[in-house]
Amino acid sequence: MYQEFEKIIQSEYQLTPQTHIVVGVSGGVDSMVLLHLLCQIPKNKRPVIYVAHVNHQLRAESEEEQLFVESYAQTYQIPCFVGIWDEGKTVDTNVEQQARTFRYAFFDKVMQETNSTYLLTAHHKDDAVETILMRWIQGSQLRKLVGIEKTRSLGANKVIRPLLSFSKKELYAYAKEENIPYHEDSSNFSDNYLRNRIRHHIRPMLEKENPNLGEGMLRLSQEISTQRQVIDELLQPLVELLVCYQNNTWQLDYLSLKRHNLAIQSEVIRYVLTDIQEKTSLVVGYEHMNQLQQLIRSDKPNQQVLLGNNWIVEKNYEILTIYQKKESLNEYDVFDLVKNQGVFLSNNQWLGFFELGKEDIPNELVNWNLKEMIYTHGKNHAIRVRKREDGDRFVYNYKGQTKKVSRYFIDEKIPTKLRDLSWLVFDEKGCLLWLLPFRESYLSIQHETDKIQYKLVYLYQGDE
């Protein structure tokens, strides 16, 4: 087994004595075998090794496992870093995902501290098969059915899995042959986790029908991976033509995309969403694919869709813009709107500027609270919305007398919190039309002889 492992290390990953690596070691048989194999590499070929262990504090034996890993690393004179997940004592929902998030964040931190290029994990062939089955059961996208890949990115560095060619049975046999100590994780025997239920019940049942199930699934996984690489390579020139990424914002030329068949449209959308998921915190699912497909195929020119976690898709003119709304807006935020356009002022505020009778409210906002203002507009068909500044004034009566916005807030005893949520709406001449959401400027009040042309639609959640 060692000869095959060394060949993988040297040929597939080109690890040299100058390479710094972090090895994730839980104390289980998989990671202990991995660490042992690495330590068998001759010193003149062996990379610089650091051990990283996470004490999740989820089980009574967690402390004992930590001491075991630290002691083993000390025996081989390998620096050992320990991360302790304090939340592990109290967390009771989505435990696996939260633990994984903490674990990889800790690994990334250790890699930065040790100037390491690679993180090595002890995932093996059976893990890969179980992952494929798990994702198939969960209804994952096709590209996710590749299971566990040999290499993936982790920030600026990479995660590599040199044991994927070996089965769990082979690892146990090697540990016995080499007298490698390890701890058996008691949670591996619990059916509380989907992976364990697959391992204990589902996979054995399927293997009664096909004893070579694992090998077949891994071949299928490799085929999917190869086809995805081909599709992505062929798609790249079109993506570069249609998609622009800058400052955590994606823009898609959806009018040009609509000239292609539906299959290509779907692949470009999938490419964009995958790129967003890899660069941000957005978790992408089939519902996001469907939302974008419907938005592109719709004939309505100005629409918005909420993707969750403050992510917004805006459809304006020829461009589809995808971005994450900031949690809070500062006093320098400014929005310029042309007619028949809407914009999110914050997570809970939306303003639209429409020709009368052409109002187009996003479906997601129809149940929000509503305020409207109708007025005659100038020739430039544009308005500006911004936060208040010192000296802002508005016309408050028919005589044309003005009042400072700050004085109005004081006179009306408006709480500071509500003042901070307010917006000022100006016409193209810089005249204040609306102190949103409190009152209109007298300039915006329509006389009977005026011709009504435009409507401002303000939608919000909560009390204002």
UniProtKB/TrEMBL annotation:
GO biological process, one term: tRNA modification
Domain of life: Bacteria
Residues that coordinate or bind ATP: 26-31
Catalyzed reaction equations: cytidine(34) in tRNA(Ile2) + L-lysine + ATP = lysidine(34) in tRNA(Ile2) + AMP + diphosphate + H(+)
Keyword terms: ATP-binding, Cytoplasm, Ligase, Nucleotide-binding, tRNA processing
Principal cellular location given in the protein's record: cytoplasm
EC number, as in UniProt: 6.3.4.19
Localization: Cytoplasm
Boundaries of every Lysidine-tRNA(Ile) synthetase C-terminal domain copy: 383-458
One GO MF term: ATP binding
GO cellular component terms attached to this protein's record: cytoplasm
Stored InterPro entries: Lysidine-tRNA-synth_C (IPR012796), Rossmann-like_a/b/a_fold (IPR014729), TilS/TtcA_N (IPR011063), tRNA_Ile_lys_synt (IPR012094), tRNA_Ile_lys_synt_N (IPR012795)
Pfam families: ATP_bind_3, TilS_C
SMART domains, A to Z: TilS_C (SM00977)
Swiss-Prot/TrEMBL domain comment: The N-terminal region contains the highly conserved SGGXDS motif, predicted to be a P-loop motif involved in ATP binding.
Recorded family membership: Belongs to the tRNA(Ile)-lysidine synthase family.
Role this protein plays: Ligates lysine onto the cytidine present at position 34 of the AUA codon-specific tRNA(Ile) that contains the anticodon CAU, in an ATP-dependent manner. Cytidine is converted to lysidine, thus changing the amino acid specificity of the tRNA from methionine to isoleucine.
Record protein name field: tRNA(Ile)-lysidine synthase
